[in-house]
Amino acid sequence: MHVLARTRPPGTSSLLAACFRFALALACAMLLVTAACYAQGSSPDPIKIVRDASYNELRTGSQAHPFRYRVHKVDDGKDTLKEVVESRDGDISRLLATGGKPLDADANRQELERLQKLRDNPDEQASRHKRAQANNQRDDEMVKLLPDAFVYTFAGMVPGPNGPCYRLLFQPNPNFHPPDRQGEVYHGMAGELWIDQAQQRMVRFQAHLISDVDFGWGVVGRLFQGGTILVEQRDVGEHHWETAHMQLHLQGKILMVKSLVIDTTEDSSDFQPVPDAGYQAAIALLETIRPE
Question: What is the rounded average pLDDT for all residues in the chain?
Fold first, then answer.
């Protein structure tokens, strides 16, 4: 062993160690570069994600299966619970409770009389349905603008109600030119958008107003900086998506004169599919509900 040790050239041990350290450092550097390139290449394109989700929101909206569900709403301190039945002639609702308490006998009787009058007046329901369709059309226009209205940044994956979701942060797009006053509201919004990875549907839209913004939803007005908007939806069955939770805390002015305060929380639950029928069948279904 002593002879073998003497035959090793001077400095061989330190040279091998140095070569090993260099090779290890080079390998680590190559690994980091490879990992960075992989991460960059595998990171999803946020604009494509939003465009696909926007398309799906608009496409499936016209193919929606009718459902019945309950809506608990707190609006400016007023607490109500309603049963809603969707129909091909529009949604029909029945008030079930106020202030956390079921309707008394007299209030329940008045609600049933209201439904009976509505059943006997198709023109009234047609007018209500037309207004609802106009509102839905405005909502669709806003969804169409989402891919272009903001600059998106991929912020990772988060667990959603139906599985993993893309989490995207957004800021106003300075190059976005809204086609009408309705779209101008996006100029003052920032927040985050969650999109279901499997079904490519919008799960959560949470925004806050970073500046005063004008709007034009049928009237001219302004929303003040600091307001918040939260909308959450989920698959309620059969790949049918519905809004499950909404919170609006907004202040502003209508016609630049009258004060506007929106303080609303709305939760929808107990979704059940119903036959595709007209509004009178929806009323008949609501009339079968027994007061709790």
Answer: 85
Q: 165: helix, coil or strand? A: strand
Task: Report strand pairing: 241-254 vs 92-98.
Answer: unpaired
Q: Is 156 helix (H, G, I), strand (E, B) or coil?
A: strand
Q: Please tell me the pTM assigned to this model.
A: 0.81
Q: Which two tokens stand for residue 34?
A: 């490879």
Q: Tell me the two tokens of residue 10.
A: 């001077």
Q: How many angstroms from the chain centroid is the CA of residue 156?
A: 17
Distance CA 201, CA 196 (A): 5
Out of 213-222, 229-238, 243-252, least confident range: 213-222
203 has pLDDT over 80: yes
Domain residue extents for the chain: 2-42, 46-287
- Residue of higher predicted confidence among 176 and 257: 176
Phi and psi (nearest 5°) for 60?
A: -80, -20
70 CB neighbour count, 10 Å cutoff: 17
The secondary element (H helix, E strand) that includes residue 208 is strand 202-209
